[in-house]
Design goal:
heterodimer, A: mainly alpha, ABC transporter involved in vitamin B12 uptake, BtuC, two-stranded antiparallel ribbon, 13 helices, 2 strands, about 75% helix, B: mainly alpha, 14 helices
Chain lengths: ~325, ~350
């Protein structure tokens, strides 16, 4: 009886009693969710265009952010460091396409996944070799990102909004909109969608697959850089981020591998869900449920809807 | 010249179905077993047995387990480390709850618990496959890791949160614990690995193993031909997790001596996956080659700078090792997706027709 009470009654009583705290928790979850969404967005971009499940997206986030911070530490002005970091992601995209993807065209999904796991190791090794393994603070102020916080008085309490979190949400929205325009209005964007639809048909109308793949890896490299900046500004830039980035995989399951709206909705669902669960139901399990909540939610979800929220129906042909 | 099956005729059905149809292969296996059971214990140093051979055998067994699932049944798994953990923790519970149990039996029994957990986390494989499944195995990895930390009963409410291996004896010889010599531990582990590998090789070429391979090659066609995916997939998960569980128990009891959760984290899952990829998917021999390669490579890399008289930080060599392994994985996937085992196969084919390569069919 007590157990049932602590599952079904007590958490909701808590929520109703302190609505300001509830809003704070939801907001925290929302911001974490935005960052999951951004990582998942990088996955989706690459998966749509090339069918590669890019396990290295998490390390790309760390790598790009570390490159940015290290460049600034070396005395490069902040704006130039951003340009150079984007340039590094561009070089990375082209070389990945040249050296890895081009040789593995038409291989099985699992083979491509394992190749990106290999890529993860390389990026990790190179990153630690060049930039060092210790965590670094993000250069928030030099990039012109807001710091500080605003208090919002509501329900006899206060809810604290960190400005950087608001900025993260705004930037995420802007980036998704920019990507939307890029996909639907530009020549390259339309070519990308054609490739995502059907590789061979795209080839037959004269779209270069190699070029498109390089572009799409570059695009997700930029998404990674933005994610890295935002995440770094909230905590710091370190390789531990890579494990957290794996949660974006659970987001993908919820949203479907090929859907950009899915990545965003999935990210927000997982972000908010895990915070609420940790705060209100976490005590039942002992702390630390955040580590697995996303995956178990995804696993249960898969049993009922294998294609995800917005994924395409899976049709099997013999 | 030496490796040729000319003149070896199969005169009975038994001979036709032999696991090693060629005489030279049988001799080769015997030589390897002789070296493993007699040569190494007699001639090798304690360091070689304790720090190279024992971990190598542990990882080889785990790789056999993962290879059953990934290489033979085609279900990609990223949760090997956690399944090894289940084996280790259940072995610890068995031997502390029933101290009189023979430790070998406890180790072999602990795989059963791992198999049960494996089947539970294998259930989604009935609805989903491929990459989606790989991600659900991550759920197993993180959930089980959390259990190892939070459920105090699993480590007998130790303050350290680690499992300490108690001393257990068989015929008055210490097999586990601090006073067990590397030689005894090596002999125990090599026997278990040899027997389990033999079992795996035979299961894989039998009815169950062939049904796994049918599921891997094309699940719908296999279903139409009368393979039940439910049994085939779940039995693959059970077998695979059993091997991983035993490997995990051996890892803690025969090698590490004590272990915390970090010993079973996701990096270990990846490590075993790399062994399978580089060794060769769908090959028992490949598991051993891959395990030897991945385990020995970092040791060699650590030794190289001092041999060449260079002064490089230990951390730097570790990063370089990471890069080398990453490059090798991609290299193997591009050039030889079937790994080291396939290279060995090609070498054997070449030997067969040597010195007249154009004369063979």
């Amino acid at each position: 009886m007590e157990l049932l009470n602590s599952i079904f009654v007590a958490p909701f009583v808590d929520m109703a009693a302190y609505p300001d705290f509830l809003i704070q928790v939801i907001w925290e979850g929302f911001v974490a969710g935005v960052l999951y969404s951004l990582i998942a967005l990088g996955f989706v971009l690459i998966y749509k265009a090339s069918g590669v499940f890019n396990f290295a997206q998490g390390i790309m986030v760390v790598f790009s952010a570390l490159a940015l911070v290290s460049l600034h530490e070396a005395g490069v002005p902040a704006w130039l460091a951003v340009v150079l970091a984007i340039g590094i992601m561009g070089v990375l995209a082209v070389s990945i396409e040249r050296l890895v993807l081009r040789k593995l065209v038409n291989q099985h999904d699992a083979i491509l996944l394992m190749a990106t796991i290999g890529l993860t190791l390389i990026l990790k090794g190179v990153g630690e070799l060049i930039f060092g393994g210790e965590p670094k603070p993000m250069i928030t102020e030099q990039l012109g990102l807001p710091t500080g916080s605003t208090d919002w008085e509501v329900f006899d309490g206060i809810v604290i909004f960190q400005h950087i979190d608001i900025a993260a949400a705004v930037i995420a929205v802007l980036m998704v909109m920019a990507l939307g325009v890029f996909f639907s209005k530009t020549r390259i964007g339309r070519a990308l969608r054609a490739v995502a639809d059907d590789h061979q048909a795209a080839l037959s109308v004269g779209i270069s697959l190699h070029q498109i793949w390089a572009i799409v890896w570059f695009a997700s490299g930029i998404v990674a850089l933005v994610t890295g900046i935002m995440w770094g500004a909230r905590s710091e830039v370190s390789f531990a981020l890579e494990i957290i980035a794996l949660k974006a995989l659970a987001v993908l399951i919820l949203g479907g591998f090929t859907s950009i709206p899915g990545a965003i909705v999935g990210g927000l669902l997982i972000g908010i869900g895990e915070k609420l669960f940790e705060v209100y139901w976490g005590a039942l399990f002992g702390s630390g449920v955040e580590a697995w909540f996303a995956y178990v939610l995804a696993l249960i979800f898969l049993l009922f809807r294998p294609q995800g929220l917005f994924g395409e129906r899976i049709i099997e042909r013999v | 010249m030496l490796y040729r099956e000319a003149g070896q005729f199969k005169t009975s059905y038994a001979a036709d179905q032999a696991m090693l149809p060629i005489l030279q292969d049988r001799i080769g296996i015997l030589v390897i077993l002789l070296v493993a059971f007699v040569g190494i214990p007699v001639f090798a140093t304690d360091f070689f047995m304790g720090s190279i051979m024992i971990p190598f055998l542990v990882f080889a067994l785990a790789a056999v387990g993962l290879n059953i699932l990934t290489g033979y049944a085609g279900q990609l798994s990223l949760g090997t480390g956690a399944f090894m953990g289940v084996g280790a923790y259940s072995c610890y519970k068995i031997t502390t709850l029933f101290p009189d149990t023979n430790i070998i039996i406890a180790i072999l029994l602990s795989g059963v618990f791992s198999a049960i957990i494996g089947v539970i986390f294998g259930l989604p494989s009935l609805r989903i496959k491929g990459l989606y499944l790989a991600i659900t195995t991550l759920a197993a990895q993180f959930f089980l890791e959390w259990c190892f930390i939070r459920i105090g009963w699993l480590y007998n409410y130790n303050d350290s949160g680690a499992i300490e291996v108690p001393q257990r004896k068989i015929f008055d010889i210490a097999v586990t614990g601090a006073s067990a010599t590397p030689m005894v531990r090596y002999l125990v582990i090599v026997s278990i690995v040899a027997v389990l590998s033999l079992v795996a090789a035979n299961v894989l070429r039998g009815r169950i193993g062939r049904s796994w391979m049918m599921i891997r090659d094309m699940d719908i066609a296999a279903e139409l031909m009368g393979i039940r995916p439910l049994y085939a997939k779940l039995s693959a998960f059970a077998f695979s997790s059993y091997y991983c569980g035993v490997a995990g128990a051996l890892m803690v009891f025969m090698w590490l001596g004590s272990a915390e959760v970090e010993a079973f984290d996701i990096n270990h899952s990846f490590l075993v996956l790399f062994m399978v990829i580089i060794g060769g998917m769908g090959s028992i021999l490949g598991c051993f080659l891959g395990a030897a390669f991945i385990w020995v490579l970092p040791i060699v890399m650590r030794g190289l700078p001092s041999l060449m008289g260079l002064d490089i930080l230990a951390a730097t060599t570790e990063h370089i090792t990471n890069i080398v392994i990453g490059v090798l994985i991609i290299f193997f996937l591009i050039v030889e997706p079937h790994g080291l085992a396939r290279l060995w196969q090609i070498g054997k084919e070449k030997l067969r027709s040597w010195p007249f390569p154009y004369a063979s069919s």
